[in-house]
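QA checklist item 7 of 12: single-chain prediction sanity check.
[x] sequence parsed
[x] length recorded as 81
[x] structure emitted
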Amino acid sequence: MRFWDGLSIDLFTIVGITAQDLRRGRELAETWSDQAFSIVDCTSFALIERLDIRRALAFDKHFRVIRFGSRRRRALEIEPH
């Protein structure tokens, strides 16, 4: 509930996905077909990639699996550790 309340006082920036993110998310789902990534996971990953986000608050284990960049070397820094 505190997190939810934080959203309403501009503690966080909320960014929506684009049609490009939907397409890129689909590509990621195909590329990572051995993982059970959801559409929400994949579109989030596309947005993270597009905005070059390096650190994320995530409780979903898939955010610890995904890798970005050439040769998939860059992992997200996930909070909480």
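[x] summary fact logged: The chain is about 45% helix and 10% strand.
[ ] second reviewer sign-off
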